[in-house]
Amino acid sequence: MRILYAAIDQVVPGTLGGSTHVQAVAEGLAALGHEVHVAVRAGDPDRRRESLPMFLPMSAPMLAGSATWHDVRTPLGSPNLRLLRRGRLRALATALRPDVVIERYHNFGGEGLLAARAVGARTVLEVNAPVVDYPGSPKRTVDRLLVAEPMRRWREWQCRAADLIVTTDRAILPPDTPAAKILETEWGADTARFHPGAAGPVPFARQPGELIAVFAGAFRAWHGVGRLVDAIATLERRGSPWRAVLIGDGPERAGLETRVAAGGLTRVAFTGSLPYDAMPAALASADVGVAPFDPAAHAPLQHGFYWSPLKVFEYMASGLPVVAPALPRLRAIVGEEAGDEAGLLYDDALQDALASTLEAMADPERRRRLGAAARARAEQHFSWAAHCRTLDAAIAAMRAATRAPAG
């Protein structure tokens, strides 16, 4: 099968979750024997993974079982202008004649769906963010002022036009989306790359007797990094051995560094963003992985915690017990209700709950047991390979079904 994957607002290779997602899905589908072409923005070569994306002109010959990367950039680097590249996507689709076009959803996207329609290809819409508006959404206000609600109508058209929708949570789709065309599934981790024995340079030094709680991700309010800093401050006052290593960057980082310095905290370290190849060794060298999400700080999460958190899957693949708030989705992922729990979840409404949970993780036997369960769950349920097998089967079933007319 020849697949065109349109994700032109994503940079590959890159350090963000979207970059990881696109590269993993493309390579995973190629590993299943498909010829995969991916339209993205080419990233910084200095940040490339060991398996380098090969950006080639579309005239280059390709074989099944391979992935080719096409550098297609959004105008001015803005994802909101993606649709202006519909001519470029149509030209790519016309040259490749794909059987299937996968598009990574965006409010102002649709260029992949239009390209597929032009060449008669089947379509998959990969939805990572809400299609429906949340209460109080500024987009909703603007749409109503425009009377005809063009933005809502365009988003809903994308869902109608897709033959298959892949999402983490059907609650973020228009309520009239037919259940038969929805694949509800989780994302994943590269369990071959992330594992407990991953070797390589480690961007922090462990002092004798210290326990390392690692956070990896974006420093944005809803990722809750400040909650981990507060917990470590509490534990430092109690003389606890826990130390936090914070990997990543974002708008919250400068303020947190100022807070740490002003508070005289000695057990919080910032590494900045790391190349993707450095992440497996960094995680494997920690004792627990912390994902202190703060859903109240991100208005779209009023729909529920629809994220499929890559950091949690990579912690688990690395054999790290997970420490996170007890949200329903995280309960299912960590397995708290299945008897093979991969971490400890806390009630974030309780003061010092994160600090107390880390204290409970000081028991080495508990960490060993939970870490082993985390690795097993990642391998069985949350690998990119498992995700791509599920996606491949759903695409095959979609292609075998009779196509319904798009609205």
Please, could you describe this protein's structure?
- With 407 residues, the chain is an alpha/beta fold.
- The relative contact order is 0.12.
- The strands form 2 sheets. Strands 3-2-1-4-5-6-7 form a 7-stranded parallel β-sheet, with helices on both faces. A 6-stranded parallel β-sheet has the order 10-9-8-11-12-13, sandwiched between helices.
- It has helices at residues 17-31, 86-96, 111-119, 138-145, 150-161, 225-237, 253-262, 279-284, 310-317, 328-334, 353-360, 364-381, 384-400; strands spanning 2-12, 35-42, 66-71, 100-104, 122-127, 164-167, 182-184, 211-216, 242-247, 268-272, 288-290, 322-325, 343-346.
- 35% of the residues lie in helices and 17% in strands.
- It has 2 domains: 2-188 and 384-400, 3-Layer(aba) Sandwich (Rossmann fold), CATH 3.40.50.2000; 211-381, Glycogen Phosphorylase B (Rossmann fold), CATH 3.40.50.2000.
- The model is unreliable at 47-52 and 58-64 (pLDDT under 50).
- It is globular and about 65 Å long.
Structural class based on helices, strands and sheet pairing: alpha/beta
Return Rg in Å.
22 Å
Look up the CATH topology of the largest domain: Rossmann fold
Number of strands: 13
In CATH, what is the class of the largest domain? Alpha Beta
